Amino acid sequence: MKHYTIEEAKEIIKGYKGPHIRIMEVCGTHTHEIFKLGIRSLLPENIELISGPGCPVCVTPVGYIDEAVMLALEKNAVICTFGDLIRVPGTKMSLADARRQGGDIRMVYSPMDALELAKAEPEKEIVFLAVGFETTTPVICLSVKHAIRDGVKNYSILTANKTMPNAYMALKDSADAFLYPGHVNAITGEAVCREMLEKYGVSGVIAGFTPEELMDAIAVIIVGLESGKPFFENCYKRVVSEEGNVKAVETINEIMEPVDTEWRGLGIIPKSGLRLRDGFADYDARKRYALPNIKGVPNPACRCGDVLQGKCKPSDCKVFGKGCTPQHPVGACMVSDEGACSAYYQYGGTY
Amino acid sequence: MENEVVTLAHGAGGKQTSELIKKVFAKHFSNPEFTADDAAVLSLGDGKIAMSTDGFIVSPFEFKGGNIGKLSICGTVNDLACMGAKPEYMTCAFVIEEGFPLAKLEEIADAMEKTAAKVGVKIVAGDTKVAGKGQVDKVFITTTGVGRIIPGVKTSGALAKPGDCVIVTGDIGRHGCTILLARENLGIDADVTSDCAPLWDAVKAMTDATHDIHVIRDATRGGVGTVLYEIAAESNVGVELDSANIPVEGAVSGVCGMLGLDPLYLANEGTMVVIAPESEKDRILDALHKTDHTKKAAVIGKITEEMPGKVVLTTKIGTKSMLPEPGGELLPRIC
Amino acid sequence: MCVGLAAKVVGLKDGVALVDASGAKREVSAELIEDLLPGDYVMVHAGLVIAKIKMKETDEKK
What we know:
The structure holds 3 protein chains of 3 kinds.
Chain A: H1 6-14, E1 21-27, H2 28-36, E2 47-54, H3 56-59, H4 62-73, E3 78-81, H5 95-100, E4 105-107, H6 111-120, E5 126-130, H7 137-149, E6 155-159, H8 165-171, E7 177-181, H9 182-188, H10 191-200, E8 203-207, H11 211-227, E9 232-234, H12 246-255, E10 256-263, E11 267-276, H13 285-288, H14 304-308, H15 340-347
Parallel strand pairs in A: 1-2, 1-7, 3-4, 3-5, 5-6, 7-8, 8-9
Antiparallel strand pairs in A: 10-11
Chain B: H1 15-29, E1 49-56, E2 62-63, E3 66-67, H2 68-82, E4 85-97, H3 102-119, E5 122-131, E6 139-149, E7 165-168, H4 174-183, E8 188-190, H5 200-209, E9 215-218, H6 223-235, E10 238-242, H7 250-259, E11 272-276, H8 281-289, E12 298-304, E13 311-314, E14 320-322
Parallel strand pairs in B: 4-5, 10-13
Antiparallel strand pairs in B: 1-6, 2-3, 4-6, 7-11, 7-12, 9-11, 10-12, 13-14
Helix pairs in contact in B: 1-3, 2-3, 5-8
Chain C: E1 5-13, E2 16-21, E3 24-29, E4 41-45, E5 48-52
Antiparallel strand pairs in C: 1-2, 1-4, 2-3, 4-5
C-alpha cells in the first residue's frame, strides 16, 4: 500500500466523498493525539472517528477502585500506582479521596519502582495496581519475577490487566476499520490484526503516534475503505515488527493466564483479562489479603459504556460537562486525559 | 552554628528570639530603614504605589537553581514588577518548624539578601514564629512588598486587545519540572534548573523601551497555559498560540514526554507573559534580549476576537486545537 | 493506551539500559530485547524497552 505525507493525507481526508465511514481508534493515546492535533476539524461529515476502549483507566471497573481503596484504608498497604488511576471514582471514593483519609498512595513511573520501594521499606506492604494492556503487562510480570528472584516478600500486585483480541471481536461491528494501537502491536506483532482480516474480514492499520504517522494511517484507512476490499497494513514498521516482542509475550504467558474480565461499561468479555498463575499466589494481592468479592456500583447516569462502543458521543450523555467534568469526574472516561469524554470536554466539540 | 537547630524557645519572643533575629536575619537584611520596632516608617514620595503579598511553602525548600528564600523574594518582586512597579520595600514573615537547622536558615536568609540586593529592594521588617515539630513542613515564608509604579505605565490582565502579540520572556516550565523531579521519586535524571529569578530588570528594560504594554504577568503556579486562560477571561479575548514557537528546553520536554505532561502547565518562577501591541513587539524583544534571564524571550502567539475566553493552538499539521483548560492536580500519565 | 517514549540508549548493564530523551535520563529494563547496543534508539513504556526503533538514515541527524 502507498503511504502519504501530511499534506497528501489532509487532501485525502478533506476530499473524501464516499459513503459514511466509521474509524475506531482503539488506543487512548491515539485519541489524545487526534484531539491535540486538531485532526477532527479536518474530517468531513461522512467520516466518523470513534474513540474505543483503549484507555486502561477508562475500562477499569468501579469494583477495582473499591478493592484498591480497601487495601489502602483497611489493610494498611502502601498503594503504588500510575498517576492516571488516582482520580478515578470508585463506588464511594477515589484513591485521591483515600489519600486524604490517610491512605498511603504513591505515584510511580514503573512497577519496577514499586518493587524498589518494597526493598527499601521492608516493614511496609507494597501493592502495585496492575492495569494496562499487552504493552504494560510485560514489565508488571517482570516486577513479579524480580520479586521472586530477589526474595522480596512484601510486594504484590492487584491485577486488572487486559488483552485486546477479544475486545476487537466484541467491537468489530461498531466500526468499519480499526486504527490499531501501535504499542500493543509492538508486543503482539501483526498476527492478531492479520487474523481479524483473514478470519473475519475486519479492516485496520497499525498506527504510530507522531503527526506524520497518524495522518498517514488515517489516509491509508480511507483509501483502503474506498477500494471496497478488506485490508490490513502496518503503518508503524519503525517500531512494530511482524512477530512483535516474542520475549515479552513469553514473559506474560509464564506469569499470567487468561481470565474472563469486566470492562467498565462493556461488561464481561471472555478471556480478555489476565491474572497471576496459581504458582504466584503469594504475589496476588487479592489472595494475600483475602479480599472479598467486591461488586462496584457505577453512577447510573454515566454512559461511558456507550461512549466506548461508539453508540453515543460524550455530549449525548446527560451528565457530560454538567455533573461530570475533568475536575469532578463521574465516569472513568472523564478522568484520564486519554478518555474520550475528557478529550472531548477539554478540546471542545469543534476542535 | 554548625549543629544548632531552631527550638520552640526561638519563637517564644524572649531573649532567644532576639538572638535568632540578630544572628540570622538582621545580619542579612540590615539597612537604614530596617526596624526593631513594630513597623518600619518609610517614605514613598508622590505617585502611585503597588503592594503585594505572597506565601511560600515549596517542598523541598532547596532545589536546583534556588531555595525558598530566593523564591520568596522573587515571587513578590515579580508580582510588583508585573504591575510596572519598582520594588522598594519588603517585609517577611517566617514560620519555622522546631528542629530546623540554623545553618540552613542562614543559607535561606543569605539567598534573600543577595536577591534583594540585586533588585535594590530593602527588607525593612520581619516576623519569626516557631511551630512544633510536624506542625509545618520545615519552613514557610510570607513576603510583602511595596513598589512605586513607573509613571505612564498601566498593565492589567483585563487590557489585552485583539491584534496584540503574546510574548514569553524565556523558555517555559523549568521551575515546575525541577520541583516535580525533586519531590516525586520518579528515577528521572535531567539537567533542569529552576528559572527562579527576579524580573524587575526585565520590566525596567521593557518600560524604558515603551510604555505601551497591556499585560505583564508572571507565569507561576499553573504555568503559561493557566495565565493565558486567566487573561483571556479577564480581557474577554481569544489567545492563539503557535505551538512551534513556544520555547521549551530539551530536558524539560524530555521529562514531559516521559510523564505525559505539557510544559504549558508547569510553573515558572522567572518567566513572564507580556502582551503588547504588535507595533511595540521589536522594541520589547530587543529590550528583553539584552537583559539577564530573558535572553530567550519569544513571540508565541497573538490575541484574537474569535473564541473569547479560550486559548487555541496552531498545530504541527496546520490545524487548530484548543488548549485544554487547566485544572486539578498535575498527574503524570503513563498508560 | 500506552504512552511510548522514543529514547537513545546511552548505557547498558545487566539488563538495565540508561536511556536519554532530549536530556531526560532514566534507567529502564532492557531484559526483553535481544542484541541491544549503546546508541540504539528504543521505544520505552512504563520503565521497559518494548521495541528497538528501526532508524532511517535521515533520522539519525535529528
